[in-house]
Amino acid sequence: MTYVGTLRSNKPHVPEMMKANCRREHSSLFGYHDQLTITSYVPKQGKAILVLSTLHHDSSVSGPDKKPDDILHYNKTKSEVDHMDHLATVHTSRRKINRWPMCLFFNMLDVGGIAAFIVWLGNDPDWKLSEGTWRRHIFLTDLGYAMVTPHVKERATIATLQAPIS
Asked: Is residue 163 scored above 70 in pLDDT?
């Protein structure tokens, strides 16, 4: 599994040499540590873009702007993450809560629902095709009922067994 993502330059663990202080436009700096590569690219004067990558391990640059390959890769693939975040917010299980483990759990439910829907459509691409954009909503509703129904039935039988005899 690999990681390619941006970093904020105001973090204390980012080396000072990676910041944009007095560097030329379209210049790049690379830092290496074990399997990590940190790249600092200056697209315009006074602004640095920092990318951390476990996929790229060289200092190759491309194009007239001399952009590093890890930044080009990030720009090419970041829209998929944005699209997944959008899908997760359209039909979400999130609630307003201050406890971070619950926020993480709700996010895991949302992403798991998206993944389950993709697998479901991979096995049956024509499933409820006439429903159009409501297919995912219908799938998530059916999935929720399928997950809850056995528990509800079990609770109902336990409640009838424990009910007092009058």
From this structure: no
Phi, psi of 125 (to 5 degrees): -65, -25
Q: What Å distances lie between residue 5 and 1, 27, 77, 78, 124, CA to CA?
A: 13, 19, 10, 8, 33
Q: Is 52 helix (H, G, I), strand (E, B) or coil?
A: strand
- The Cα 152–Cα 118 span in angstroms is 27
- In this structure, the strands spanning 47-53 and 4-7 are antiparallel
For residue 50, what are the β-bridge partners? 7, 40
In this predicted structure, what is the pLDDT of residue 143? 92
CA distances (Å), 148 to each of 59, 92, 143, in order? 52, 17, 9
CA distances from 98 to 3, 85, 86 (A): 28, 20, 22
- What's the CA gap between 59 and 73, in Å, rounded? 13
Two structure tokens written together for 135: 């297919």
The residue written with tokens 């590569």 in the block is 37
Q: How many CA atoms lie within 13 Å of 158's alpha carbon, on the beta-carbon side?
A: 6
Q: Which two tokens stand for residue 85?
A: 């975040």
pTM above 0.85, yes or no: no
CA distance 166 to 156: 19
Give the Cα separation of 93 and 76 in Å (integer): 29
